[in-house]
Each structure stands twice: as C-alpha cells, then as structure tokens.
Design goal:
This protein has 79 residues and is mainly α. The chain has 2 helices and no strands. Keywords: Membrane, Transmembrane, Transmembrane helix.
Length: 79
C-alpha cells in the first residue's frame, strides 16, 4: 500500500471520528436535559465544522494524488 492510500485512510478515520463526536454531542443534549445544552450545541457545531474541513482537505489531497498518479485506476491497456 502506498503512502497516498495511507494518507487517505487517516482522512477517513478522522472523518469517522468527527461523525461519532456529532452523535456523542447529540446524545449529551438529549440525555442530560437543559444542564449541558450549551456545551452540546457548541460541540455539535464544532464537530460539523471539523467534518466539513476534513472532507475539504481530503478532497483537495485526493485531487493532488490523482494528478500525481498515486491514486486512481491505472490507464487501461490499449489493444
């Protein structure tokens, strides 16, 4: 496995962690009532922002890797 695939794997892991944190903060808001509403809503917002940033950076990096020929299908053989 080349370094480009490993890098994209870590982008995927960080996106999954951000999605899990969104669920965690939603459960904090739902389970605790009004005690942790502010922390929960701030956490939800920051998790969504983090997810968007991770996706944007991952797509930019993927585009660079494809342009460099490190990702993507090899060109089909001409017959």
């Amino acid at each position: 496995m080349n370094k480009a695939k490993i890098t994209m794997f870590f982008y995927a892991l960080s996106a999954i962690a951000s999605m899990i944190s969104i669920g965690l903060f939603v459960s904090v808001v739902g389970a605790t009532g009004t005690q942790y509403n502010t922390i929960g809503f701030i956490g939800i917002f920051l998790s969504i922002v983090a997810l968007c940033v991770i996706f944007m950076q991952g797509m930019k990096q993927k585009k660079k890797f494809i342009a460099a020929g490190l990702l993507g299908d090899p060109e089909p053989e001409q017959q």
